[in-house]
Structure formats: C-alpha cells, structure tokens
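Input:
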Amino acid sequence: MNAPSSLLTLLGASWEFGAPVVAVAWAVEGGLVGFAFGDGHLAVADAQWHGGPRVKPKPGGGVAVVPATEAPPRPVRAACHEGSCLSLAADANGGFITGGDDGRVVRVPPVGNPQVLAHVPGGWVSALACSASGVSAYASGRSVLRLGPGLGGTQAIELSAPATALAFSPDGRGLAAAHSSGVTLWPDTGPPRTLAWPGYHRVLAWSPDGTYLVSGMQENALHGWRVADSGDLEMGGYPGQPLSLSFAHDGRYLATSGATRPVCWGFDPPHAAASPVECGIRSLTPVTCVACHPRQSLIAAGYHNGAVLLCQPGSDEGLFIKGSGGGAVNGLAWSADGSRLAFGTQDGVFGWLELPDALFTSRTRSSIRKGQP
Amino acid sequence: MALIPVTVLTGFLGAGKTTLLNRLLRGAGGLRYAVIVNEYGELGIDGSLVIGAEEELYELNNGCVCCKLRGDLLRVASSLVRRPGGFDGILIETTGLADPAPIVQTFALDDLLRQHTRLDSVICVADARHLVHQLRDAPEVGSQLAQADLVLLNKADLADAATLAAAELAVQQINPAVELQRSVHGDTPLAQLLNRGAFDITRLHVPKLRLGAAPAGGRRQRYAALDAGRHSFGISSVSLSFTRPFERSRFIPWLQRLVTERGADLLRAKGIVALEGAERRFVFQAVHMTVDSGLDRHWNEGEARESRLVFIGRGMDTEELRGELGHCLADTVAMTP
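Output:
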C-alpha cells in the first residue's frame, strides 16, 4: 500500500514525537487540534497556517495546489499526566480535557496553563466525554462521574463493571457508559438504566439523531440498541475487533474498523436482511480507525501500517492522504466543518491537512466523466 | 518492533508469591515492570508501575463455556501498550483462587495485545509443605499447576524429604511438561524466571516419557500407579509418544475435534509431532479451545522422529487418547466393520 504521492505532503503538516498517539480531537471552536500522547503530554496544533498551501480549482476541472510559502506553526506541548494520557475530549467551553493513569482529569484551555479538574487517587481515568452543553463526564474503574453547569457539583454512579467507554447522546441529555455485559444509560434526570447484552463492550457510537446506540465488542461484533424501546441489533462476522465506529453525518450508515477495508452498515433504517458493505481499496492490512466526514459521504480510514485513505461507501476507490509508515493509525478526526483532517499513529507521527470541498467536487466531476465517456 | 513480554505469577494463598514478586521487581537489574495486581497490597516498589485490575471474567459470546477472557485486564493492558518505552515487561499477579487460563486466552485472542505483547511464561509458586493437601481441597490449584510452565516449590527448607518428594510427584502427575524447581523464600535466580519463551511454539518443551523415573531433584521414588486425578479434582495428565509418523489428514482434524468437543475439560495440551512426508516438526499448544500450531524447524539429521504429546485436563483417559491417536498414524490399516 505505497502511495506515489500523498495529499498530506501537499496540503498538510506533520510532526513526530517519541510516544504513541492515544487519541485525536479538534477543539469545538475549530482551528485547534489536540493530540494526546502515551507519555502524558497533549500536543495542540494551530491549523491557522498563514502562508500555508492552497487549493485552486482549475478552469475546465481539476485543481492546482499552490505550495506553502511559510512553515506551519509548531504544535505546543503541555505536560498533563505523570504517566500516560488515556482519554481526550474537546471541551464545550474551548480547549481540551484529558484523562490519565495518574487519576487526573486535566483541562487544557486554548490559552494558559493546564488545570486539574478532578483527581481520583490511585485510579485510571480511562474514558472521558464532553457534551455540547458543557457537561464533562469521566470514568475510573466502576465509577462514572459528571460535572458541569447546572449539576450542582459532581454527580456519580457506580456501574456493575469497570467502564470502557463514555459517549453523550447528540442532544447531550443522556450519557452512555460501556462495560462488560452491556451499556448503562444515565439520563440528565432520573436513574440510570442498563441495556444488557452479554460480552465485553469497548467503544460506543450514537447515531446523529440519537435513535441508535452501537457498541464495538471484543467478540468481533457490534451490538446496537434502538434506545427508545431497547430493541437489539446484532452485527457480526468481523475478522478482528471493531474498535473504531463512526456514523455518517446523515446517519444513513455506520462505518467501522475490524476488517481489512472499512465496513459500512446501513442504518436507513437498519434491518435484519441487510448485509454490510466494504469500501475503499483492497488491502492486506487491517483498518484501525474510521472517521466519517461531517458533511459529505466520505470516510477517512486509518490502517495498521500507518496509511490513511479517503473512500466512499459503495466504491472500491481510495484517495491516499498518507502512505504507510509511522505505525498503526490510533486516531483520526475531522474538524467540525469538515475542511481539515487530523491523524496520529502508534509510533508518534501526527499531523493535519486541509481538505477543501473544491478537492472533492473536482474529483466527483472527473469520476462522472470517467463513468460516462 | 519488540514485543512486550508478559509473565503471569500464580500460586495459592501463602505460597510466597508476593515475596517472589518483590524480589523480581527489586532485582530486575534496571528493567522496569508494569505490575498488574488484583488488589493493592504491600507492593510499591520505586520505579515500578503498579496497576489494579478487577478479576472480571466473562464468557465469549461463542457459546463455549471454556472461552473466558479477563475484561478489565484487556482494558488495562491495551492502555499499557500505548505507553512508550516506560517498562520492559508486564507482570500479572493473580489471586490465589484464580484460574490462569482466561489470562492466557486474553493475550492469545485480542488483536491489539497479540500485536504488541507476547505471553512469556506462567509461573506457579506452591508451598512445598501444603501442596498435596491443597490439591485435594481446592480445584484452582490443579488448574494453576496445569497452566504453569515453571512450578516453584517454595519453602522447601521447611518441608521434610518425604513431603517434598510427594509434592514433586503430585506436580508431575498433573503436568509432566513443567519445569520444577525447589526454592527458599523465592530465591530462584531471576534469569530463570524471565524470558522463558514458554508460549513460543518454536521453543516448546515436551519431555520424553519418564515412567517410573526419578522426579526432578534426583531423588529416587518408587513409581506407584495411582488412579489419575484421584486427589486433584479429576485433573490428570496423559503423556504419549509415537515413533510412527502421523497422517496429516487424520491428525489435524482429530486435534480440532478434540479441542472443540472437549475444550472445557482440556486445561492444557502441547505436542511435537512428526507428520508423514513433512521435513519439519509440527508443533501445537492449546489452552481449552485456544490452539496455536504451526510447522517448526526441520528435523535434524539422525534425530529420531518421535512424536510427543501431553494432555492435561479433567477425565483424560490414556488408553482412549492412545487409541484415537493410533488411528491417526500413517499407514494404519483401515478398520472396516
């Protein structure tokens, strides 16, 4: 899977720090992207690149790239945790929140020094989530805690097993916590309820309208629930563990890792007879990360060998963002407006690039031309 | 990329596991370990990372009761592989009542852990004075001995010769492939505890049959045939050797059927097998239904192409296994009814 040239070198910036990237997230205000590292640091890169490369549509189709005239701004590194960063989320109030194996929850504001929001002595903060309304939730062992405006201090519940992942529903009114044997839903008012399903649930994704909640399981399968009536959806047959899930912006499909190509499940609506569809180029190396574009039907896929590709459901084509190298892709994230993509790898390579719409409209035009000669 | 070695330390309560762990951490010669424990105790060695993980067992959704994983261990170990160069190995201390099989299966079955770690060894610390009684009283002791590749008969200085010999015989009846060492205050040289490669199928150790021979330690024992597993909750072992090669098309399906149908009772199995027409050794090891197998090195010139197999489990019947395996040998005259 070697690319002749990659979009990253043309349109982006990348760096290397000597520690694995654990997670990647864009700050809500856009323009800032955070990379959490296994050595306890958070690197924040400013994507406002004066003199950076630009994409210009050419008359008659295609695009021209105007190369950068200045170097990209260097990422700023903040020491957040004594050991490893374990979790990262964009704070609704700006900046980032990280959790670490020193038991700390740390807020890194856009400007200024990191502040410790909470401390669980001897614990690990393995999962974090922030809602759009500014509520932050974190998990350490079986305890799930949340704090933020309107809660009157920190609230806590105990799960039946240690939490593996947290995710707020899109409206921010419910918090889902994954664990062994199911997922616990903790509404903003009222007691928690459990969506039970045997097995070990490790990652979570909400459909954009909050109708469905899907977990990625250790057992090479997904399990979904229709949240309103706890109806079950079983999705299996993966050769590996699907530990990265991403819903399309319109909720029409769910893209996942767990195979050597991104796997898409129809959710328009989901039905028992539907089988999943693989997309992107054929590969021998497993997909480790997927991220759906926030406005278009595009999937960014990261691979175990470090490659990053853009692909579309139903298509065998792929557009290289980055060739192989740098170790497995551990994190991929689109900026909220979809104009930038950031990535980070196991060997500590990380970066971001501009992917303006002009790039895709011209590609679409040329592929239409190819299809109808 | 170097894989992180993982050592599992098991042993019954009071056997001296914590003493050994402390020695390992102190004398590690500059090596740093991440230690995963069930409960924080007296441990707290400078420079080592001690992490608590719940002993959370869950069954895989595949309908097999023996395929159990340790969920919380997955969570903790998956985060450890994202921690750069901070440590040289992972030590997992289990509680005295834990069955080590789910730990072995956790590392064998998870994609990420398989990519970044290698299970190096399961070490069982046993109290030489009490082992024989404990085997009779608690089923976990038999499982721990079955999964181990090294058994340390600790507190050997406090046991008399007959007790020590009985303990050694008991260990070997359950696990004939195990390396057995006597120790005092866990004083085994550290080099013998680390980097054992016990789960590397290319370094598989399957001993020659030694019926009636003296157990390790050099003391002569009278061999007495006992009902297998009479004193150990039905856990016993069967060691077999064959000088005739196996027919691949019969042996492999048989092995698959064995682990599928009897995986729940099969605690551990391993073998070095000569296949008809193969110039290389076929090696396998299994923990319940989890099997690792492959072709290993070439048989050496002049080396006897002898197949050696060990099966440890509940209700393992020597004659039954010998009979079934006999049908898998090459050039067997087909029995027609």
